[in-house]
Amino acid sequence: MNQSKEVNRPGSVLIISAIIVGLFVLWGALSPGSLESASGQGLGWMIENFGWFYMLSTAFFVFFVIVIAISPFGRLRLGKPDERPQYSWFSWIGMLFAAGIGVGFVFWGVAEPVLYYLDTPMGYTPETPEAAVAGLRYAVYHWALHPWAIFSIVGLTLAYVQYRKDRPGLISSAFYPLIGDRINGWAGRSIDILAVIATCTGVATTFGLSALQITGGISHISPIPNSVLTQIIVIIIVTFLFMFSAATGVDKGIKILSNINLILAGLLLLFVIIFGPTLFIAESFVTTLGGYITNVTSMSLTMTPFTESEWLGTNTIFFWAWHISWAPFMGIFIARISRGRTIREFMAGVLIVPSILAVLWFTTFGGTALYLEISGAAPIGDLVMNNVEVALFTTLAELPLSGITNVLAVILIAIFFITSADSASYVLGAMTSNGSLNPRLSVKLLWGFLIAGTASVLLVSGGGGLQALQTASIIAALPFAIIMTIMIISILVMFGKDYKQEGMKRRRKRMKKLKEEIREEFYEDMKEEVYEEIKEDVKEEVYEEFKEDMKEKVYEEIKEDLYNDLDIDQNKKNKDK
């Protein structure tokens, strides 16, 4: 009991990370202009000097997870060899999708393809058919394999060390094979603090985006204004709703909401496919999927060293860094819900399914928005450039039953918001409670309020506060990208040792089985041979005994007959006399 209390007791990681986040919020509240200026300079420096590192590392992450999935390591299980998955496939995929990335799908699903149609990648002319194709392809590129490869590396590593090695669910636990017990000192705490800060800034950004889109949707379907006050009220309401969900735990709150959200998202997706430009969406899906598969390698390894173009830095590198800042949060949550699955099954669910959903989602919503923009039916392009949070609702307004679908979209975003807050509070609570699978409710609520407060203060502060937070989260992602690269070395060390041990166990089991088979075969052969020998011996013995018995019996019979004959002869002689 005392040990359990010690594990759940918050420590220095909570205190230090909460102070750092609080100081950052205070800076944004008191001087948003200087925060924006400093973070902007930091972002420019990072992209200029480390853009190549982000491009190369994310491409390597994708390559690594694919190789791991198809390698013999794919048979290893995230848990003990006899463990089985805790959640059904549907619930698992629902929680993966709703953990937070679903907010990105809903927010950018319409906006990003249209944005790249107007502000094109290098080599394309804006507002051309080629730009539309490229816009869809690059939107899928930013949300398919690469982000999920980033999340899966952290999730895979933490699930393995937590359930296979019985270590705490902390980022620092992944480094035990390399630095040993030093993870229990300041080296490990520093890694965990960095992960907490990156997670907090990344999640707070999503809070802000969710609040912006919810208020944008409400203002589109009602007279309520899309103001900062409305956004703060939305954050307060969602925070209280998330508290009820957090109190019920992962098995009930997040699981139930995730299943509901997956159904709502599926219904909205089907509605747009059926009532939108169906043929255009189908053709866009095939073209985008084919273009993505064909060009993903070149897109992953292409930079623009001979031009002054800033597109790559403000878009692709921006998204890679943002996804890396999300990696601790998504990784820990994915690990929490993936116990008992094999590495190959884990990769199939975490990598392939969301990537296919990304292609389908972006070609459906982005394709519909592009269709409306190109045909001149709705000014989607102007909204994306100036008021991006209402782009989805304007697109739905051009389809039948817009009143219902807009309300459904607001509910969808709200539930995504709640599940993101719930998941984030759980993850941050676990990270600051020594990796406890069941952090205290008070710690989860503390982080929920702190993240909500961060987003609220930066929305109120204005002057690019939310953008400054987003930029800061990207800068914080740089050291974590280096940590992830070292993490791969650590996990390969663990996989190699465990696969070797399992191989030895399998070989011993095969040898034992082979010995038993040989023993059985030898036994059968010996049994047959001995049987024949014994049969012959017994046959001879029985024959001899039978012969002796018969001989004795015949002897007795002959003897008796002789005696009888002798008696008869004697009697005859006596009569003659």
UniProtKB/TrEMBL annotation:
One of its GO terms (cellular component) is plasma membrane. This is Glycine betaine transporter. Keywords: Cell membrane, Membrane, Transmembrane, Transmembrane helix, Transport. It is a multi-pass membrane protein. GO terms for molecular function: transmembrane transporter activity. Coiled coil: none annotated. Belongs to the BCCT transporter (TC 2.A.15) family. It is found in: Cell membrane. The chain crosses the membrane at residues 12-30, 50-70, 90-111, 145-163, 193-216, 228-250, 262-282, 317-335, 347-372, 407-429, 441-460, 472-496.
